[in-house]
Amino acid sequence: MAGTKSKVASRGNKEKPKEQETKDKIIKSAKKTKSLLPALKENFGFDSFVGNQEKIIEALLAGTDVFVIKPTGGGKSMCYQLPALISEGVAIIVSPLIALMKNQVDLVRGYSSKDDVAHFLNSTLSKKEITAVHDDLKSGKTKMLYVAPETLTKQENLEFFSDLKISFFAVDEAHCISEWGHDFRPEYRRLREMMVQINPEIPMIALTATATPKVQSDIIKNLDLRNPLVFISSFNRPNLYYEVIPKIKKEETLKSITKFILLNKGKSGIIYTTNRRTTEELADMLMANGIKAAAYHAGLDSKLRSKRQDQFLKEENIQVVVATIAFGMGIDKPDIRFVIHYNIPKSIENYYQETGRGGRDGLEGKCILYYSHKDVSKLEHLMRDKALSEREVGTQLISETVAFAESGVCRRKILMNYFGEEYEKDKCGNCDNCKHPKEKIEAKEDALKVLNIIKALDERFASEYIINIISGRMTPQITMYRHEGMPLFACGNDKENHYWNSLIRQISLEGLLKKDIEEYGVLKFTQKGLDFLKKPKSFKIVLNNQYNDANEDDDEGAEAEVGAASDEPLYEILKELRQKEAKKKNLPPFVLFLEASLRDMSTIYPITIVDLEKCQGVSKGKALRYGKPFVELIAKYVEENNIERPDDFVMKSVVNKSGNKVFIIQNVDKKIALETIARNKGWKLSELLEEMETIAASGTKLNLDYEIEQMLDENDQEDILDYFKNCDTGSIEVAQDELSEHNFTLEQLKIMRIKFLSKYGM
Questions:
Q1: Which residues are CB-contacts of 249 (< 8 A; sequence separation ≥ 6)?
Q2: Count of CB atoms within 10 A of residue 270's CB?
Q3: 195, 304, 337, 566 — which has fewest CB within 10 A?
């Protein structure tokens, strides 16, 4: 990774040409007098430096302040570890996490023959252990001392350090100093003050893996780096594959993750979540399915956290760590093959830092983000009680992450641009947007509907209220303001709410609208938005209807494609086969197998009828009736492509949910109203209908005539059944469009499709 030098001013002081020339001469002189390669070989066993490591070390040894930005896996630690070992005195290294300190000390000791070469001082040590560390420091045996910022705040420590011979100060994870960074620590703000108290003449090196231009400036200013040499390596990690997947209903998301890990059997990975409870639930679910997993979060005992981290690093009974962001900073494990985000991160920096832990050896690294609008709403909700300045920062960071997730542009290009680096190619070829470009649709008229409603409401409401107006949803607030009488009320009830949610976000991302932070997200016009209203023009958006509003606490959602866990070529072949077999039997393709069933087939590769029954929506009867050509095709495909099949995958839940099917069947037999059935389970009607469709598609008959007769007359029923007999797709939206003259609702069509499946699905 080639490094480049740039000049960033400290407190407005720009680098003077003469001073820069002096530094260059010092570095050149140091290089001529003594090569660093023998020291590198002797202390670490390497024959060459990576990227700009050597230049960085030479600058630090010459007494120059240095600022280093190197992506995870780029060899940041070497930039202060080698100079510490070959310099007189001890280097004081500030590190934000106790686990990180221990990990780094263990690594340094692993290269050395002496344990006293490196120590850490933090709250985990006993008085006896602290005394032993002090003795080694006073004797000059210790070359590296890792400390937490809090350790430096204690006056007795500052006085003790003042009497030592200090070679230099190092600030690791320096982004923690900036409020605009992804892991702000207030204690970092006082570092320069405390270092000056120890010795104001000591050079300093600050290092981070991620920093936008604003954060870079913040770091240099707050650490008061003196005319520093700045080394910025490329942010491109070409071996990492980036993908964003719709976060569908919880059960399907968990199934997708489990299958993916089983298909990557034996490979190490990390799953990041936003809360402790979810780490425990996910880890339990993975273990129930035969995956060696463990939870990691700040609520665990420190000894248990340390034990689990060591087990993961050494690959002892832990293949996958399910963690909050407390895990991973500075973890030196080169062969992490996948990083999964179960929730959207709070910032692009968080995302880049966490995904950067994958593929540090330059080999395979898959970065998968599960994304839904509701997760974004949760993050925004958590910002409400923050101070105004913090809300402003947090809201902007979230908005940038949403833009990344919903964009149809090359993801690598977006990431590098965010950090101020230009990616010259249009496509990287190693992200989902490059491999599977998203279709864009014209949305000018719908954008105008949104903007005109905001204008009519005098820019006084947030997006949720706007969506309620446009979809025609009667709420107490709408009734109170009498907004149901607006001309545009319900003007968009022909589309799902998630469509309008996505549209509003993309309108905002295009700069037509902005959120007023002080008024909790009220939508306001920008000048660009006002200009658009006066003179509308083409407005194309990526259709993100797959990003529904499901999350870990609310199972609402719809069937969606899960690209990371399926074999796309096989999936397309199976779709063609389904079409062919459906024509033979004079049935619509979806009657044979649902899209979700084909997805499962292209993931777990069933090669027998028994295997086929393990796929979603496939009963024993359906497998026997329609399955033979499918398993034969898959068996041939597996053999020709040398596919390694996952071992007999059957999704096991920690909590048994099999009672849902029995509950639904019993209530339908009793002719209980569907609204009542849904309410008793805490579901929406759409969720109940989805469950019913899966039951009917798997071969169980559901007699819904008692409900259908109240909704549709016989002629309408016949029209819908005739349509389903001859259609080429199972899409309800397409059915609604093609039967538009009848004005059937989605619920009416869904119930009739369940009746159709119950009649012909076996």
A1: 550, 555, 556, 557, 558, 687, 690
A2: 24
A3: 304
Residues 6+ apart with CB under 8 A from 534: none
CA distances from residue 554 to 247, 248, 372, 375, 684 in whole angstroms, order as listed: 11, 10, 12, 10, 11
> Per-residue pLDDT for 565 more than 50?
no
Cα 319 to Cα 174, 208, 313, 576, 654: the distances in Å are 30, 27, 9, 37, 19
Exposure string of 460-497, with b = 16+ CB inside 10 Å and e = fewer, is ebbbebbbbbbbeeeeeebeebebeebebbebbeeebb
- Paired tokens of 738: 């093609």
Local confidence band at 561 (pLDDT 50, 70, 90 cut-offs)? very low
Structure tokens at 467: 């969506």
- For 525, phi then psi, to 5°, come to -75, 145
Query: Tens digit of pLDDT for each residue in 4-33?
Result: 333 333 333 334 444 455 455 555 544 444
Task: Judge: domain 659-760, CATH 1.10.10.1390.
Answer: yes
Structure tokens at 265: 């059997």
Max Cα-Cα span within the chain: 96
The full set of domain ranges for the chain reads 3-233, 240-435, 440-542, 566-640, 659-760
- Specify burial of residue 439 (Cβ count, 10 A radius: 0-12, 13-18, 19+): exposed
What pLDDT is attached to residue 564?
A: 39
Q: Indicate the CATH number for domain 440-542.
A: 1.10.10.10
Spatial separation of the C-alpha atoms in residues 48 and 751, rounded to whole Å? 68
- The pTM assigned to this predicted structure is 0.56
Fold of the domain built from segment(s) 3-233: Rossmann fold (3.40.50)
* Averaged pLDDT, 176-192: 71
556, 541, 565: which is closest to 372 by C-alpha?
A: 556
Average pLDDT over residues 360-374: 89
Pick the closest to residue 321 from 346, 342, 350, 351 (CA basis): 342
Structural contact between residues 617 and 597, judged by C-beta atoms closer than 8 angstroms: yes
